[in-house]
Amino acid sequence: MQLNLDLDGIEFRFRITKYEKSNSENLYKLYDQWCIVELSLRSGSWLNYQISSEVLLSYEVEEIRDKISDFLEDKIQLQEELGFVEPDLTFIIRKLSITVLAMMIIMLFFVLSVMRFVMCFSFG
């Protein structure tokens, strides 16, 4: 799954790799199918941000896909919130412009990267 956008001159890339279709019949495997989430933001010389980490499970990626489909089909009334096993990450899907939505995702990943840095610094 990949999303590439040009947000008023900011190149936004969101990519999910290492995805395997989830198997709801095997509970152990359901919680062992981690996907790599890559996010990058670039614009001229002033913005060059990247992060790549295993923060979503396969079934969570499928939930995101379903909610995006609902959004595109105008089935979301005001807001949908998705929480995940990785507690530092939440997706909030609102009826907003795509620029505002992308900026919300950027802020979530920034918080995630800061928290991972603090954890690494604190525990060695």
Layout of strands and helices, then pairs:
Blueprint: E1 2-7, E2 10-17, H1 27-30, E3 34-43, E4 47-57, H2 58-72, E5 79-83, E6 90-94, H3 98-123
Antiparallel strand pairs: 1-2, 2-3, 3-4, 5-6
Mind explaining what this structure looks like?
This protein is an alpha+beta fold. The chain has one domain. Helix content is 36%, strand content 36%. It has three helices and six strands; from the N terminus they run E-E-H-E-E-H-E-E-H. The chain has a four-stranded antiparallel beta sheet. A two-stranded antiparallel ribbon has the order 5-6. The N and C termini lie far apart (34 Å).
Low-confidence stretches: none
Mean pLDDT: 77
Number of helices: 3
Order of helices and strands: EEHEEHEEH
In total, the number of domains comes to 1
Record field, number of beta strands: 6
Beta-strand share of residues: 35-45%
Largest sheet, strands/sense/barrel: 4 strands, antiparallel
Radius of gyration: 15 Å
Task: Output the structural class.
Answer: alpha+beta
Name the helicity range. 25-40%
Cα separation of the termini: 34 Å
Strand order of the largest sheet: 1-2-3-4
* Outline: globular
